[in-house]
Every structure is written in C-alpha cells, then in structure tokens.
Amino acid sequence: MTKPATQYIARQAILDATKQIFAYELLYRDSQNNAFPVGVSDEQATGRMFFNSLILVGKEKLVANHCAFINLSDTTLLQEIPRLLKPDNLVLEIVERSQNVQQLLETVKMLRKQHYRFALDDYDADPRWEPLLPHMSYIKLELEQPVLKTTMMVKKLKRLYPKMKIVVERIETYEEFEYLKSAGVDYFQGYFFAKPEMLTHGNVEPSKLVVFDLLKSTAQPNLCFKDIEKKISKDLSLTARVLKLVNARSGLEKLEMKTISQAVVYLGEDALRQFVRVLALSELGVDKPAELTKYGLMRARFMALFLAPGGEEMAEQGYLIGLMSILGAVLDMELSTIVSEFSLDSNLSGALLNYKGLLGGALRVAIAVEQNNWQEAEAVLAAVRPATPISNIYDLVAQSREYADDIFAVVSVQ
Questions:
Q1: Residue 136 in contact with residue 106, Cβ under 8 Å?
Q2: End of a domain among 260, 283, 306?
Q3: 192, 302, 305, 344: least surrounded by Cβ within 10 Å?
Q4: What's the domain count of the chain?
C-alpha cells in the first residue's frame, strides 16, 4: 500500500560577483520548518533527497537548469551513490563531519575520472583535508568575524590552488560582500542575497516490505532481472522512480522505455544496487527510533563476519537473517508473517524463528552480545563453533559497531 505525502526540499542561491545566480545548494528538509531536522543522519538525509527529490522530480527542475550543489555523507560517497545522477551541472559537497578521508580520496579520484566535480564544505584548514584539496573544484568557507580572517584564508587558498573556486557562505551585509569580492572570492552565499527557499512536491512512498524485499534480491551475487522487475512493477512509487532514473541517466539520448523490464535491463546491476541502497537509506526505520535500525545493521554485519569462514553465500545469508530478525519491530509485523512474505527456505526460516542450525546459533550469539550476556554468548559459541575463542567475538562486535555507526551516525542540527 502506498500513501500520498508531501516532500520538502530547500534551495539557496549561490551568486557570482555580478550577483547573478550561478548555482543552488539543495538542502534536505522534512517539513515546512526551514531547518535541517533534528535526529536525522547524513545518510538518511542524502538517501531521502536522492530518492524522493533528485530522482523523482529531477535535478534540473529543482535548480531551474542551474548548477546543483548537493551535500553528501562519506558513507554515501563511498557507496558511489552519486553515480545515479549524471555529472552535468552537479557539484558534490563533502561535509565537514566526514571521517574516512583516505577512503574518500580514492572514491573522489575515481569519480573525477567520470567527470564529477567536488566541493569541500565548511573548510576549517584542518590538516586532515590536505590530501583532498588538490582534487576539489570548489572550497566553501563560512564567513568569520572579523572578515579579515576569511580574506586571509581566501588569499592563501588562491595562492596554493589557483584554479580552485572559492565560495563564501553566511554573508549578511553589502559591506561583507564588497570586501570579499575585492579579496578574490568567486561565489557568494548568504542571507544578504537570499534565505533558503522552500520547495514542495507530491510524493508516493514505497511499501517498507517492498524495500526490504528488493534489498534481499539485490544482496545476491547475481541479480535476477525478472525478479526485480516483478517487485518494482507492483509498486507505483518504485515504477515512477525507476523510469525517472532511466530518463536522468540517458540524458540527451531520450530513450523511450516501453516496459519496466526494458528500464531495469537498461540500468544494469550496478545502478540497480545503488538505487536500492538509496531506498534503504531513505526508508529504513522511518517513524521508528534510529537506534532500532542501527541495531539491525549492527546485528546483520556481525552475523556476516561471524559466518564469513563458511563462504560468501553463508555470510550473505547471515547478513539477511540479521536484518530480518529486527524487521518485526520495524514493520510492526510478526516474524512468522515476514518469513512467509519473503518466502524463506526452511534453513533460513528455522534460523530466524527457532534459532536452528549454524545460522540460528550465530543469531543467538549476536542477540546475547547485544544484551551484554557474555555467559550465554560463550555457551552458544562452544556449541556451534567450539574452536572460536570468545576474544574473536569482541573484535567482530567492534567492527560491527563501527559499520553501523558509519551508516547511522546521528548529526547535530545544521
């Protein structure tokens, strides 16, 4: 069942030295309140913006065919989700909360070869950004007081990176604008020119069950396009988004898609996996505490790592069971109903409902660890994998927690 909803997005103009609009920065919003919502992670905001606005409505319409600056979490960049959009008139902003700078560097280099451009947001001169700076097309600075501090930074950056364009934000007076312009600033943003402008558009949200069903299908090593097509065709919102995505990626080719099957095949495996990641990031745990979803991801990752010695397929099954074990709470459904809806085989359903087999044992270990019941975890471990020391479990827990934190790190209000 889908339901109508209103989607919100804000855009703020970025102007050149003649006060002409050069670009718009697109900002995620979830209501008429023109501010970044409390308790929403960078990953959720990015996913919802991509899924509900950039793909469904279209980047060009949102920015009136100007350049679009879009904030991205480091996790979103590392998953290469920006490749869902063509690089034309697009600037990807790396937010100041990003942590994985070395990993980001490799992704930035790869995406730049595909003609994507990058901006470093709220640059603070921290040395950790130095590896990224030569690969940035834009640096965004927040105006500091006295203004001289900002102009000194501008001149230093211009000297070190003469081809880089400088954008200064939070400009509130004509005097500040003139002073910065004379210092060589290229582009300007702030309340002196325009406050963020609220845009709204209609939306049809996909069924959470369909989202997880697609997540299950795209977790397999080889996609079954027929299976994906059937799932998408049953949901109006997914059908609309897939067709919009094809249009966005085809650009000037103006392909005419006559069937959903044709669209799915055109997108290919990589784009479909990225599409579903956007779905999951934007829809996981909506209307539920973020910690609930975080536990699900942590449990899924733990089980995949625990079962990895049994091979890739066993690890993938573990990840799926870990995610599904928390679906009852996320979807307000009985686990037995979810097992039926997902048509799980007897091994998977037995593990999920009755802790049977190695998969079920791994799930018991994961739950015991979450409850800090190490005595129970050690007892189950001795039964299902006696050669594994409990010290190994500590390491898996740390890796799993880091994985979940990276995806659902809750940010402060922007």
A1: no
A2: 283
A3: 192
A4: 3
